[in-house]
Structure formats: C-alpha cells, structure tokens
C-alpha cells in the first residue's frame, strides 16, 4: 500500500472517531465542504472535502502584508475563486493587471497543485509582497466569511476592527494636520527643519544633548562612541539624521550601533523605547536593508500602528508601508498559511479560540473514554447518540489546564509519555488529531507550528532568512519561551534588536512558561546566553512622568527579585506634586474622597491645569468604575469612560451578532449570542433555553435557528421532545 493510501485511511479513521456531537467538527466540516465545492468543484470533487483539500498543495504562495490578514480568513493565495483574488489585490508590477489561479496536474501523478500566477506567469519568488488595495481593508472584509468564524475568534476580529478604527482616526488626524508628525523629532532639540546638520554641528549638538541629559561629565569612551555615531549619521538622509540627533546619547547609541551585532535595549516605561526603535529602523534602512526585509514584532496591533506611523513620519509613508510590523501571532499565521500542507492542513485552516479548544478537549476526553469502554458500547454510532456530552464536560475540566499548558510549552504527546503521563499523552494526541481532522490550529499551534516549519524544513528556514534580514522585537519581556525559540531561529543572522523592560516581566507567569520547557526563567538571560556577542544598552531616563512618580516607582521596583540593581531611573522633569496614599474603609468612602479631591482641584483657580479634563481615575475592576460613574452623574461632574473597548462591550457584541445573522451562510454561534442577549431571563434560565435548543438541533441534525423557530412555533411535539431528550441524557 502506498504512503498516500495509508495516510488516507489514517485520516478517515481519525475523522470517523470524532463524534457527531462535537459541534466544532460537525458544522465546520459540512459547511466548508459545501462552500468549497461551490467555489472550486475540481478541488473538492469527492465527498471527502478535507482529504482533497489536503492534497491541494499551494506550491507557490504570495506574501501579503501581515497586518492585513484577518485571523480566520484564508490567505489570499489560497482563496478560491478568481473574482475574490482579483478584487482584493492589486497587481505587483505596473503592467500586470490581475492575479488568477490555475490548476494543473503533475506529471505522472494525480496530485493537484494550485498555482498563483500573475499575468499568466508563475511567480517563482514566494516572498513578493502583494500590495493590497486600500478599499479592501474595509469592515466588510471582516464580515465577509461569517461561516469561518468561531465565537472566540471575535476577540481577534474585534482587535482588528479596533486597529482599523484607530488607523482611520489617525489618518483623519493626519489629514487635518499634515505636519504634526514631523514636528516630533525636530522640536526636541529645537533644530530648525531648514538646518542641514554638518558633522561639526552634530558634535556640538551631541555635546549639548549630553549635558542636557544628565549633566554628568562624559567618560572618554562614551565620547568616542558619540563621535563614531555622529559620523555614521553623516551619511544619512537629512530627515533621518535630524531624527537620530533628536535622541539622547543612549538612545542614539542604541539606534546607531552596528547592525550585525545583536542588540538588547533594556528600558523602563516612557524612556523612549519606541523612539529608539524608530531610530534603529532608520539606521537599518540607511545601511541598505530594504524595508520589506525588516521584520518588527510588537505585542499589539496598536503598537504596530504607532511604530509604522512614527517611522512613516521620518522615512516616508511608502517605506513605512513596506515594513513588516506584526504581532507574533499574525506573523506565524502567515507562515503557517503559506506552508499549510507541511502541517497537514490546507491554507484555509481555521483558528480555534478558547471555546473551540475547550470543546475539542471535551471531545478528546470522550474519544479516550470511548476507546476504554469499547466493549461495553459496541458501536460508536450508538454510543454517540446515547451519551450526553455534558458527562465529558465535567471530566474534561481538569484536562483543559493540562492541554493548554502543554500546548503553551510546545510539548508533544511523546514527551508526555516519556514523563510517564500516558493518559495526558493520549488526550493530547486525541486533541491534536481532532484539530488535524477539522483542519484547524489553536493559537499556541501557530507558534509551535512556525517553529516546526523553521526547524524541520530547511527551505522554509532559507526563505525566512532571505526575507527577514533584520528583526526588531518590542516588549521583549512578554515573549514566551516558544516565541523566543522562533526569534532565535529567525535571527540566526544575528541582526536582531530586542527592546524590553526586565522590571515588567510577570515572574510567576514567565517562570512557569519558561521552566516548563526546562529553559531559563527569563528571556533576557536566554538572549544573553544564545547571543554571546550581543551589546546591551540601558535607557534610564524617563520622559513621561514627574520626578516624584519616577522615584516612587523606582523604590517599589527595587523590591523585585533578580533585577539588575544598577538600573536606576532618572527624570529631568519637574518634581511634581507629592503622591498621597489614602486608605479608605470601603468603596463608598473611597469614592467620596476622590470626588472631594476632584472638586477641590477643579475649582482651584490658582492651578493652571485645574479642569475636569486634566483629571484621570484609574481603577482595577469594572464594578468600581460603576460606582464612580453613578456618583459623577449625581454630582453633575462631566466624565468620559475609557474602559472596555467599544467593540468588546456586551451590547456592541450583541449588535454585531445580530448583524451577522443577516448575512448569508451565518452559522449557529451568532444566533446563540443573539438569544443570550435578548431572552428576558436570568443567566441560568437563558443557558437552559439555549442548551435545550442545542439538544434539539443536534438530535434533528438541523441548524440552531431552525430548531429554535420550530420550538417557538410549537412544531415539535411534547412526545418528540421527551423521547429524544430522554435518549440524549
Ligand atoms: N530623547 C528624547 N528627548 C525628548 N523627549 C523624548 C526623548 N525620547 C522620548 N521622548 C518623549 O518621551 C515620550 C515617550 O517616548 P516613547 O513613546 O518613545 O517611549 P516608550 O518607552 O516607548 O513609552 P512607553 O513606555 O509608554 O511604551 C514621548 O513623548 C517622546 O516624545
């Protein structure tokens, strides 16, 4: 039997094991089969859609900017249908007018390949950046594939929406004040935009800046560095040079240090990390690295947007657009989609969020139980029909933590087995099989699969090395062990800059993640060990806060264990008013005290900043916020709330779910959410009704909404309900 046939049978065995009750697999497999058949009859001509999709290898893929890929949307190169691809992506060269897909059979093989070609020419370089047309980045894109979205995906989708909104408001602000961003760099040292900075000017300016920064006498070694850095600025375009000169000595040293030496910038809040990273990117560009070969990793989409905007203000929007500034997950998503076939997935694979992951774990436990009780329950079909999935829910609770932890650390079933945890190995194995069968990856898989691609496939490693010639990582302290592993491989060329605050790392979390892997408890330590020739620079001057705040924070941070004791923060800002520590008996007393203080400040005409708009209240829990809001209304104090992001508010989520139900091919989840929002019952009762509708829809093998409408239209008889519900419980 050929390997292919063995795989085929194995795949079918896996799929057959998965219960019809596993909601994630049932609707996804059915729905995707139908959709894809419709769009691409050749690709999925057999009933076993997934099997055929796995065969269809995307042999030549195109890179699109990472920021523009939404999480559960298939990559453009893998989308079916010419129309979609044509409308979404503009041509690469001026004369090429469209991109289209062709399919051809391999010689002596029935294996089908999908090529992406431009103007009928197959593109040999899989890392050419496609330019997405601006109108495509509209909200409608994010709603255009409702059936591919799982409920937990909402989080990432909402983040993307937030990012678009931020982008739009930033663009609007820019339109209103086109020179605003240019002012940032030049205003710092009062350099007129007309001035061209000659070398001698730079030296004196550097000297001034030094004096201004800390007032210390420079050690001669540092003075040499300043001269060297100033010389390196000499060859820069004027705008770059001006920007670099606006940085303080340490920031400038970091930005301009040799790009072939790994660089670690350890910096506290408000010390100009972003400003320095912008300087570093300018330096890389000046050294001849193309913007499309620079990869900057940030932890949030808003940080990515800010960095792009700040680079764009100096280097020009065109260059800034070409940079790849991405989160770890969107970077990995793109890599996995481009090489999905190597991961036994198709490029359209789904991302499972927490909810789907939980359901898959329940199913993994059920499979194990099923195998154990094989004799007692002769056929799987009977078993599936009679057992209540709720039984497994309880049993699986303890396994959820285990699987999440194992996945977060990239542990394999074989490794669990080696450690003597056979049950854990079996459940992890089942879980992984389920994800393969459902053509899905979870969030942890995105990172571990990228790591696998880079380590097991030399061609992928080479592609990445050719593509990402320099790497910059923001918020390095938040990098997990697996993400760090990914970075270490990507940065085999040593052109890596990491920026982070070692005081900000959350020890408990980080230590558990790192130690799970048997690695160091700190990413910084790992970096020092893995890049022994690295250079380390500390930024200690805080530009954001008053001296009083910086000193108080420093005192507190001194208590952190394992911290670098030589790191003392400075602030040249004014001392500012003293911090008052007030203990209150309860929340009401606290609220009353705060209101008194606000009224006292806001009505004090002697203080220049006395106005309600200059006062902020930070609170830890939503519930405390409510109390403030009620009291402010009562006392007629005007206020704004910046708490839960707009799109994460319950009411907004409910409205989005309602809108989704109006789209064709809407799946069950939006309906569930709408029911949850609209049913006039208490939480438990709502859950009861939704579970009831779910049961009926499972028994009748129909959609949630059709079961619900039958129930509410009383089309389901009492006898039917009682009989089948008794069977399923
Ligand atoms: N060398 C400098 N001279 C004057 N102002 C500076 C300098 N470096 C940074 N700043 C100012 O300090 C503020 C914080 O800078 P930036 O956002 O780069 O710091 P950060 O460390 O990234 O901040 P955060 O900790 O909030 O991420 C900004 O207003 C910036 O303009």
Explain how this protein is built.
The protein is an alpha/beta fold and 729 residues long. Among the domains are: 181-332 and 449-557, 3-Layer(aba) Sandwich (Rossmann fold); 587-635, no CATH class; 648-728, no CATH class. Helices cover 54% and strands 8% of the residues. The protein contains 33 helices and 14 strands. A 6-stranded parallel sheet has the order 7-6-10-11-5-12. Strands 1, 2, 3 and 4 form a 4-stranded mixed sheet that branches. A two-stranded parallel sheet has the order 8-9. The two termini are 43 Å apart. The model is unreliable at 23-154, 172-227 and 506-521 (pLDDT under 50). Adenosine-5'-triphosphate is lined by residues 188, 247-248, 251, 267, 269-275, 543-544. It catalyses: ATP + H2O = ADP + phosphate + H(+); Couples ATP hydrolysis with the unwinding of duplex DNA by translocating in the 3'-5' direction. Its EC number is 5.6.2.4. Belongs to the helicase family. UvrD subfamily. GO terms for molecular function: 3'-5' DNA helicase activity; ATP binding; DNA binding; hydrolase activity.
